[in-house]
What we know:
This protein is α/β, with parallel strands linked by helices and 377 residues long. The protein contains eleven helices and 16 strands. It has helices at residues 11-30, 55-63, 80-89, 106-109, 111-115, 160-173, 193-203, 223-231, 248-257, 307-318, 337-343; strands spanning 2-7, 36-43, 52-54, 70-72, 97-100, 118-120, 126-133, 176-183, 208-213, 234-238, 262-264, 270-275, 296-298, 301-303, 328-329, 354-361. Helix 1 links the parallel strand 1 (2-7) and strand 2. The mean pLDDT is 91.
Amino acid sequence: MLHIAVFGNSKWSLLMKDILEKEYSDLFIQNDGEGFCVDALVVLGAAQNEGEISVPEFIERYREGELIAIVIPKEYYIHHNNLVLALLRNGVDINDIYEGVRLNDQVRTHPELVAGLITPILSDPYLSYLEFHVADHCNLNCKYCTHYSPLVTEPVFSDYESFASDLQQLKKFIPDIGIIRILGGEPLLNPDLGKFITLTRELYPTSIITVVTNGLLIKQMNSALVELMKEKMAFIHISLYPPLQDKIQEIKQFLYEQEIPYTITEMNREFSKTQILNPHSDEDFFYSCFQASCTCLQDGKLAPCYAPFTTKYFNEAFSQNLPTDEGIDLYNDTLTLEDLKTRLLLPMERCFYCVSGKAYPWEIVGKHSMLEDWVID
């Protein structure tokens, strides 16, 4: 009997456990293999219920050989990458991490879906998360912004034709993505935002698509964009900063009246400064960095975060030479799915110029920002 774990304690985790122990296990036994037993549900934080264990407890039982693998249902979009990095950081073999199919009623009625219920993570043509910029500049200009938007001196919009080519190229490797976030800068500044949403929905019909905004321009959205977002099932995510504090209720009312789904973060009253000029050598830092889970697409390349694509603005502003020419070239003829997914789990040279950082009160940076506004002393 093969003893494994499933991540999470939601209905999707319970359904995955049930199918693994019944239909999938029976399938293996019929083919002279061993059956499956799901011994635990792995949860973030402390276990609360019988049958649950924490991530550290899973790692301990994995090291002891009591559990040989973990299965992550595709319905866990946000925590997926962070979980994988934490497992790798603690010595779990990448070949013992599996992803499940998207779960629905058809899984039980279609044997071919049961047969392909789980796939080793490096062989699964799936990403839980993707983000891309449609504007590099912003209308808020937060000090310590890790996207360096205040350093973008003129409007910079992503070229739609180049983006369309890049997303179509990515589709050849990754036909399924859990959640796709459209970022900036401030994405609502881009007058062609609707075109980016439309293409994204066309190529990724089952993905969650969300436009991440500071909210200042929401009430200025034209009716065409509002209708398109509803048609394409794209929703708004508001990163809440102090300038919006007195306006958030009327913005929520506007979104409610326009029937656009939305989510809101808690008020961001602090920003972390993470930049250093002299690289460290701690490779382990990558596996604890939350931004290392933010797979980003830009300029025909894919990277674990946006830093390789936006650091050019920092270099230009302060005559620095931090690494920028990085990322996985999607047009490389020798690139394979396994190579792409493996490289997303490895630190880049740019990663060694970031540290955990220090929190500072939120404020707007002036037009004449200085190097010390961005770099840790």
